[in-house]
Amino acid sequence: MSDCLFCKIAAGEIPSTCVYEDELVYAFKDIDPQAPVHFLVIPKAHIPSAAAITPENSAVVAHAFEVIARLAKEQGLEGFRVVSNCGEQAGQSVFHLHFHVLSGRDMTWPPG
Ligand code: AMP
Ligand code: ZN
């Protein structure tokens, strides 16, 4: 999608700090980290949010979670949280599906 920030980041048109990349997903550091470890995993294909996951595009979601598990192991994360804000009321500000991976500090539940 031409006017999407994360499509541009995935395409290398806007700079980011890469954590991992393959043909399906791109992972990069969040510009405004909310924990000592905070990176985002996105499908390279444009999916607006978790509400737009369908049988046709869900394989990339499974792949993204495999990548998250691998990165967490490689980085030695003791515990981590995976968050996907869906819709403005839930705090979504970039409308390209992304999974926040947060770690390195104690976290409360429920979230605010
Ligand atoms: P959300 O509010 O759940 O849609 O998450 C969007 C996230 O993208 C926020 O945590 C932002 O800090 C992050 N973000 C916005 N612009 C950039 C950027 N250019 N590079 C890295 N992260 C970004
Ligand atoms: Zn996009």
Bound molecules: adenosine monophosphate, zinc ion
Element pattern in H and E = HEEEHEE
Low-pLDDT residue intervals, each spanning 5 or more residues: none
Instruction: Please work out how many helical segments DSSP would assign.
Output: 2
Shape: globular
Distance between the termini: 31 Å
The side-by-side strand order for the widest beta sheet comes to 1-2-3-5-4
Average pLDDT, rounded to a whole number, is 97
Number of strands: 5
Q: Sketch the major β-sheet.
A: 5 strands, antiparallel
Helix content: 10-25%
User: What proportion strand?
Assistant: 15-25%
CA-atom Rg in angstroms: 14 Å
Structural class: alpha+beta
Explain this structure to me?
- This protein is of the alpha+beta class.
- It is built from two helices and five strands.
- The chain has helices at 5-10, 59-74, and strands at residues 18-21, 25-29, 37-43, 80-83, 99-103.
- It has a five-stranded antiparallel beta sheet with strand order 1-2-3-5-4, with helices on one face.
- A hairpin with a 7-residue loop joins strand 2 (25-29) and strand 3 (37-43).
- The termini are far apart.
- The mean pLDDT is 97.
- Residues 1, 4, 6-7, 46, 96 line the site of zinc ion.
Topology:
Blueprint: H1 5-10, E1 18-21, E2 25-29, E3 37-43, H2 59-74, E4 80-83, E5 99-103
Antiparallel strand pairs: 1-2, 2-3, 3-5, 4-5
The protein binds adenosine monophosphate and zinc ion.
Quick tags:
five-stranded antiparallel sheet, alpha+beta, 20% helix, 2 helices, binds adenosine monophosphate, 112 residues, binds zinc ion
Please summarize what this structure is.
Helix content is 20%, strand content 22%. It is α+β, with helices and mostly antiparallel strands and 112 residues long.
